[in-house]
Design goal:
alpha/beta, single chain, 25% strand, EC 4.1.1.20, binds ligand LLP
Length: 420
């Protein structure tokens, strides 16, 4: 079952708690609400799918870096995928095993690479200059760095261009025609680099597993080529990118099991250890952004529901035109009219919308409204635009509501000027 569901009485629940009642208890406007058990279930779906393989599940912490969530996933056996020095520090702080961590990125900084080298995390090589920096970091740290080559398999992920990464003109990774240069470089730096595998990441919100299969096929061919030159490499990292059912239409989307099954035989045939880097599919559906309705208005042909949440807390609709499902948390009064609304925030720009043209019962002031699937790339991309402070986070744990991150406050903001 899924953690957020509407019961027959028309109320939205998070596990066994009424969201309406959680709102009364929390009194914050807005807030992120998670289900801890849903996080566990999502992780277990990957573990079950991977049974029989050697694997590392590296959670892409850019999707959501809440420390309590990180500690929970780490406790379940998860690794971490990092794209900055601070993410690496946070993962270490959360107790992740460095040998289950991967450091990614097209612009990794030398100082961050030095930390990665010291701790022994896997580093994905992204470019010629990146390789040079990794070599320098290895010398500074006095460590041999386990590296994977991030190769662009040039498979079209069929997603929004802003979240496609594995195509030939992408800023990420290396083109296959340059592979030999990187192999020669690895050979000439045996004390600094230990080439252990190959990596690719095609993009995000992928809803067809064939895409992963096509990429994995190309990748094992590269691995064969690399092995033929005497490298004993054992890791295939196929990145993250599995999409989720943002539309809540009940459409059957590929599961972690479907994803792993399309690459399982290939991985086994080469005796590889499979690394995956899921972000969204682990965390997105575990959370709602819970908002209160400030008012309803009409302009021209448009009806608007104005809520306290905004693009500052949830930017995906504004940035990618992304659809995230919206619902009221309690049933409408009898005979309430259903109309078409744009759901918007209070931020001073027209890009500030959470949903367009949504059929909803005309709500009353103060009613609760949730934006679903807010676990991934919402809080982690939140800003303080318009001096909105980042909201608190809560999860439902053992049937109770527990705060897992404090709200940011106006006083926090003033602290940046202290002593100047
Ligand atoms: N590995 C690498 C190298 C990545 O670049 C990403 C995401 C992931 C793993 C995790 O991908 P996921 O499983 O979450 O799809 N802000 C956008 C998504 C950007 C994804 C960037 N890379 C959004 O809100 O849709």
């Amino acid at each position: 079952h899924h953690c957020f569901s509407k019961s027959e009485d028309g109320f939205l629940y998070c596990e066994k708690l009424k969201v309406q009642e959680i709102m009364e208890a929390v009194e914050k406007r807005p807030f992120y609400l998670y289900s801890k058990d849903q996080i566990t279930r999502n992780f277990e779906a990957y573990m079950n799918a991977l049974e029989g393989l050697d694997y590392i599940i590296g959670y892409a912490i850019k999707a959501n870096n809440n420390l309590k969530i990180l500690e929970h996933l780490r406790g379940l056996g998860c690794g971490a995928v990092l794209v900055s020095g601070n993410e690496l520090k946070l993962a270490l702080h959360a107790g992740f095993d460095p040998t289950k961590c991967v450091f990614n990125g097209n612009g990794k900084l030398l100082e961050d690479l030095v930390l990665a080298a010291e701790k022994g995390v896997f580093v994905n090589v992204d470019s010629e200059f990146d390789l040079e920096n990794i070599v320098t970091a290895a010398r500074i740290a006095g460590k041999r760095v386990p590296v994977l080559l991030r190769i662009n398999p040039d498979v079209d992920p069929q997603v929004h261009p802003y979240v496609a990464t594995g195509n030939k003109n992408s800023k990420f990774g290396i083109r296959n025609e340059k592979l030999q240069w990187f192999l020669d470089a690895a050979k000439s730096h045996p004390n600094e680099l230990k080439l252990v595998g190959a990596h690719c990441h095609l993009g995000s919100t992928i809803t067809k597993v064939d895409i992963f299969r096509d990429a994995a096929l190309l990748m094992v061919n590269y691995i064969d080529e690399i092995r033929a030159q005497g490298f004993e490499i054992s890791y295939l990292n196929i990145g993250g990118g599995l999409g989720i059912d943002y539309h809540h239409t009940g459409a059957v989307l590929p599961t972690p099991m479907d994803l792993i099954n399309t690459v399982r035989e290939l991985v086994l045939s080469r005796g590889l250890n499979l690394i995956i880097e899921p972000g969204r599919s682990l965390i997105a559906n575990t959370c709602c952004l819970v908002n209160r309705i400030t008012g309803v208005k009409t302009n021209g042909t448009k009806n608007f529901i104005v809520i306290d949440g905004s693009m500052a807390e949830l930017i995906r609709p504004s940035l990618y035109g992304a659809y995230q499902h919206i619902e009221l948390v309690s049933p409408p009064a009898p005979d309430t009219e259903v109309s078409t609304f744009d759901v918007v925030g209070p931020v001073c720009e027209s890009a500030d919308f959470l949903g367009k043209d949504r059929e909803l019962p005309t709500p009353s002031k103060g009613a609760g409204l949730v934006v679903h699937d807010a676990g991934a790339y919402c809080m982690s991309m939140a800003s303080t635009y318009n001096l909105k402070m980042r909201p608190p986070e809560y999860w439902v744990e053992d049937g109770s509501i527990v705060k897992i991150r404090h709200e940011e406050t106006f006083e926090d903001h003033l602290r940046f000027y202290e002593g100047l």
